[in-house]
Write a structure and sequence with these properties.
alpha+beta; 6 strands
Length: about 140
């Protein structure tokens, strides 16, 4: 199955400034315990479709959250800046999915305690995205 989250994660992983830190460590909601920092997670928050009378439904809009985690503030800021530069108003067609626009609705940062063992706190940046997309014919 092809979905916009997959296309966005691959676009980020193909961006040199992001790949330098994350590689392919962008996971759907749950991170393997063996994954070293930095890494990221993504989660679909919801899907909306424009409703019109007598016409087919409009372009679907997915609300997507991407969380990035790193051991230092310098790394998390560099990673967040690279992701923002790639994501803001992204338009791409890949794997039969056409993303017509990505809007960054908000960005926030925090310090979090990761679960598992005696791990030190990690810096976190959260992006809330609005993604307009359709499956290409």
């Amino acid at each position: 199955m092809k979905y916009p989250e997959q296309v966005i994660c691959r676009a980020l992983s193909a961006t040199p400034a992001v790949a330098r830190h994350l590689g392919f460590r962008l996971f759907p909601m749950i991170v393997p315990t063996s994954a070293p920092l930095p890494f990221g997670t993504y989660q679909r928050e919801g899907v909306e479709r424009e409703q019109t009378i007598g016409l087919p439904p409009g372009v679907p809009k997915v609300d997507l959250t991407i969380n990035l985690y790193a051991a230092s503030y310098a790394v998390i800021r560099e990673l967040a800046d690279a992701c923002r530069a790639k994501l803001d108003h992204l338009r791409i067609t890949s794997q039969g999915v056409e993303i017509t626009n990505v809007t960054i609705e908000s960005e926030s940062e925090d310090i979090v305690q990761l679960e598992g063992g005696d791990l030190p706190p990690a810096w976190q940046v959260t992006f809330r995205l609005s993604v307009q997309w359709s499956e290409a014919e």
